[in-house]
Amino acid sequence: MNPVVGLDISKEESHGQAFLARGKPFRGTFHFEHTRDGLANLHQVLKDVETASKLRPLLILEATGHYQSPVVQFLEEYHYIYIVINPLISNRLRKSQLRKVKTDAADAYLLGELYYKEEFEPFKKRGMQLLNLRYLTRQYESLSKMCVQTKLQFQAVLDQVFPAYKGVFGAMYSRISLRFLSEFPTSYSVLQTDEITLKAKMKELLSSKRGRSEGWINQRVQRLLDAAKQNPFQQTMYASHLIQFESSYYPYSSVPRASC
Question: 84, 130, 199, 232: least surrounded by Cβ within 10 Å?
Answer without folding.
Answer: 232
